[in-house]
Write a structure and sequence with these properties.
The protein has 122 residues and is α+β, with helices and mostly antiparallel strands. Helix content is 37%, strand content 15%. The chain has a 3-stranded mixed beta sheet with strand order 1-3-2. A two-stranded antiparallel sheet has the order 4-5. Strand 4 and strand 5 form a beta hairpin. Helix 2 crosses helix 3. The two termini are 25 Å apart. 26% of the residues are buried.
């Protein structure tokens, strides 16, 4: 995959690595867009660095869930885990926060740790 943009890598990873897994766990993904961008809060100068965000479809003019992954992240496993975390938000709804619905799907997808800061499991 030479000369692949970050956004293409993210989209390909979802399409070829995650989409079916979400559907198989009863948490199909909504219409979404994924981009590499600085988050609206918790950027480089913040005390707590935000590395991913999921915006509800109501924030988008065309009703698409928007997912942002910080360009400061470059470890593929960590980026994939962050992307998976944000996709869980998209699948269960942003309004669900990090509650029981989020936890159930996150664990089923192989994420572990504190639900507000999940990591890739084995």
């Amino acid at each position: 995959m030479d000369n692949v943009t970050r956004e293409q890598w993210l989209r390909d990873f979802v399409e070829y690595g995650f989409s079916d897994n979400f559907a198989d766990r009863g948490a199909a993904l909504p219409k979404y867009r994924v981009s590499c961008s600085f988050p609206s809060t918790g950027g480089l100068s913040a005390k707590r660095k935000t590395i991913g965000q999921c915006w509800d479809a109501s924030a988008s003019a065309d009703g698409t869930t928007e997912i942002f992954i910080s360009p400061t992240e470059d470890d593929p496993v960590e980026v994939a885990a962050t992307l998976c975390h944000e996709l869980v938000h998209a699948a269960v709804s942003v309004a669900a926060g990090h509650g029981p619905a989020f936890r159930k799907v996150a664990l089923a997808m192989g994420l572990q740790g504190k639900m507000t800061a999940t990591e890739a499991g084995e």
